[in-house]
């Protein structure tokens, strides 16, 4: 049956039904009219790629790499070293403060002993013959003629002074084991009492070598230097490494 031009025109206006195309036909079809579907193998491959990408992304977001761990350990080590140094310095300064407080209390004790015995002779409390090294001997002791510890003891002012001087030395020794005493001057002009002690933290700028205190001289005018210098006779003239001195003038 012949087809009229109108019917032919209406048939040509309807698109052809869609049918899946193979990869070969899809590649040969112009892009404007290409309607392709992927094969099952291609779909599975795409799903696998998507899963792997998500897995890799998750691995990047969790945990730390070896380099990150090493950097963290390095930073932590530097911090711990700083804390250790700070702790050591703090302990050293604390020990120095404690020693100075002990020396100050010892000198105050000596002043009280001198003032409590006005009957002593002008030079009864002197100890300017035995230096620091001599006093470090295990059997060293200052001599006194009478034990004035009891009230019944018949002690003169000078006897009491000799006894008090030895008791004061022992008291200082108990508080500061590596210590010594030195007393010069007289009652009329004032006693110059000195406590010498060994300080292992008294080091030079290198932090290792023990330093030596300045020897007292008439040219020293600074009050702080006069209080911390060491009498020449007390340290053997040249000083003893690591030994500090604290001086106090006692006027009865």
From TrEMBL:
Keywords tagged on the record: Membrane, Transmembrane, Transmembrane helix
Segments of skewed composition (Polar residues): 1-13
UniProt-annotated stretches for the region Disordered: 1-24
Pfam families: N_methyl
InterPro entries to which the protein is assigned, alphabetical: N_methyl_site, Pilus_4_PilV
Domain of life: Bacteria
Listed transmembrane segments: 64-86
Protein name listed in UniProt: Type IV pilus modification protein PilV
Native organism: Piscinibacter terrae
């Amino acid at each position: 049956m012949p087809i009229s031009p109108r019917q032919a025109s209406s048939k040509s206006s309807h698109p052809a039904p869609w049918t899946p195309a193979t990869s070969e036909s899809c590649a040969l079809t112009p892009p404007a009219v290409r309607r392709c579907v992927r094969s099952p193998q291609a779909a599975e491959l795409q799903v696998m790629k998507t899963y792997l990408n998500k897995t890799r992304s998750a691995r990047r977001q969790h945990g730390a790499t070896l380099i990150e761990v090493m950097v963290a350990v390095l930073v932590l080590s530097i911090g711990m070293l700083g804390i250790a140094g700070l702790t050591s310095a703090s302990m050293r300064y604390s020990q120095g403060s404690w020693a100075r407080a002990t020396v100050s209390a010892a000198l105050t004790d000596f002043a009280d002993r001198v003032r409590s015995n006005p009957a002593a002779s002008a030079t009864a409390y002197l100890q300017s013959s035995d230096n620091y090294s001599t006093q470090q001997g295990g059997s060293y002791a200052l001599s006194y003629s009478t034990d004035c510890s009891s009230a019944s003891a018949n002690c003169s002012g000078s006897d009491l002074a000799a006894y008090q001087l030895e008791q004061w030395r022992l008291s200082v020794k108990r508080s500061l084991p590596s210590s010594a005493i030195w007393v010069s001057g007289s009652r009329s002009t004032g006693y110059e009492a000195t406590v010498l002690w060994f300080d292992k933290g008294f080091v030079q700028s290198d932090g290792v070598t023990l330093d030596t205190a300045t020897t007292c001289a008439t040219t020293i005018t600074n009050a702080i230097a006069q209080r911390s210098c060491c009498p020449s006779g007390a340290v053997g003239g040249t000083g003893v490494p690591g030994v500090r001195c604290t001086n106090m003038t006692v006027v009865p």
